[in-house]
Amino acid sequence: MTFPESFASSRLLARRLQPEDASEIHRMHQDPEQMALLGGVRDEQQTAAYMARNLAHWSRYGFGPWLLIFREDDRVAGRALLRHLTLETGDEVEVGYSLHPVFWGRGLATEIAGACLEWARTDLRLASVVALTRPDNIRSQRVLTKIGMQIERQIVHEGEPHLVFRIRFDGPAVDA
User: Whole-angstrom Cα distance, residue 86 to residue 99?
Assistant: First the structure.
């Protein structure tokens, strides 16, 4: 099953991550404010690894990260994703997002994360989706709560404490 390579919410266009987006992703990875609660800034090698891993995810699963374009003026606003994630309990599908700071506080993270969850529920027909956030990322926790996710537990992921949020969907589950 494949997701759309692009879709739109009311204010954002989400398009499939492409190899030519590496410089834009690296620009995000270099922003200390944007990356403060995402593990810190990343160098070119880390961005290249991110790109390789996420482009391969699209090839393998038919879904993954999207680059977000602010529809009002065609500026890159950030990125969003649905992707497989291995946790201590096994394979999960996570929803994620990261916006340039200039786009914070406008409800865009809630808008795009909610749209991603709708794709996960209707197209992938998943039983549940998770999201990870650091305990000090209160803004992200508010977004996740607004889209119907609840804190499930605290874990250590990639050497850092994280909260695992989860939403469960009604109906039959299909493996993605």
Answer: 24
